[in-house]
Amino acid sequence: MTPLIQALLFLSSYSPLFGVFALLDTFGRGMPSAVCLGLACLGIVAAPLLFVIDRRTTARSVTVTSASPRDADVLAYVASYLVPFADFDADSLRQRLAVILFVSLIAVLYVRLHLFYVNPLLALAGYRTYEVTTAAGTPIILLTRRSFVAAASTVQAIRLSSYVWREKG
User: Fold this and answer.
1) CA-CA distance, 87 to 34, in Å (whole number)?
2) Residues near 149 by Cβ (< 8 Å), separated by ≥ 6?
């Protein structure tokens, strides 16, 4: 997965925040709110890219020896980054630059740490996150629509990054 795709997935994870910024005119009325709304819409469109891009990729069998849910990661993400800014008025240029710097820092960390699986839009689309140990003893993150991943099961999955996989289908 390219850094551009990861950046777009970050944008999708922050699209609810940009929508809130637009609704509350956080950066001002007119053009700043329109830009925030545009980023929110782009983020909503970007979320499905993860699945469109890898349709051409052949899935591999992954044998699960243990699995534990990691859905709380999404809630922690939303609570720690979205809620504090929901009603924040960035009236001065300094406040606006501070918010932009903070969101930019989170974006860089999100992409570098391959945290694109922590995405509220994917959760809303029905995807769950599991930490899975494979038969080889390798821990991976698995994105799936299953409500339960059983030990000793096999899933057909596509490798998205060094340790993040998505169940195909």
Assistant:
1) 17
2) 64, 67, 130, 132, 142, 155
Q: What is the pLDDT of residues 7-58, one digit of tens each?
A: 777 888 888 888 988 988 888 899 999 999 999 999 998 877 767 766 667 8
Buried/exposed 100-130: b ≥16 CB within 10 Å, e otherwise: eeebeebbeebbeebbbbbbbbbbeeebbbb
Cβ–Cβ < 8 Å for 128, 134: no
The boundaries of the domain holding residue 16 are: 3-167
Identify the sign of the CA torsion 101, 74, 32, 3.
positive
Distance of alpha carbon 24 from its chain centroid, rounded?
23
Number of domains in the chain: 1
Whole-structure pTM value: 0.77
Per-residue tokens: 121: 């839009």
Alpha carbon 2 to chain centroid, angstroms: 15
Which one, of 76, 59, 84, 79, lies nearest residue 129 by Cα? 76
- Give the residue-averaged pLDDT of 116-139: 89
